[in-house]
TrEMBL record:
Transmembrane segments: none annotated. Binds 1 zinc ion per subunit. One of its GO terms (biological process) is protein repair. It catalyses: L-methionyl-[protein] + [thioredoxin]-disulfide + H2O = L-methionyl-(R)-S-oxide-[protein] + [thioredoxin]-dithiol. Its EC number is 1.8.4.12. It comes from the Eukaryota. This is Peptide-methionine (R)-S-oxide reductase. GO terms for molecular function: metal ion binding; peptide-methionine (R)-S-oxide reductase activity.
Amino acid sequence: MLRIGTQLPRLNSYISNVAIRNFSSTMSNQQQQWNPKLTPEQLAVLRDKYTERPNTGAYLNNKEQGTYNCANCDNPLYSSGAKFDSGCGWPAFYQEISKDSLQYHVDNAFGMKRVEVCCGKCGGHLGHVFEGEGWQKMLNLPTDSRHCINSASLNFEKK
């Protein structure tokens, strides 16, 4: 996992230029099947789009090598190699594991324009993605994206 120093980039309040794709799931929201093993917190995040409190997630400080999968459907989402310490209080990744692993939606909740990140397989809410914050230049990352992801939406599969 990459770490930053004490300098944090300016957080921009504009909408990301991530490609917004129409989301289509094999099931409607009414038919959506949720894993019965999900905790109440996981269900609240994945289904109801809640956000866990900052600095409380199980995977925030995880430094082990492996893959982060959707807690609902086990779809591979992120590699540990793409995880970095952004200082935001949630696990941060600079890119998804594959182009089909995620779906992106415009999120205008709470009077803000953001880009919501959802599982590409089941549609479960994961978090948000932010662009243009300076991470690529500051940490020499291959992208300037920060996927700010709720730990509750993830399961970690150790290598």
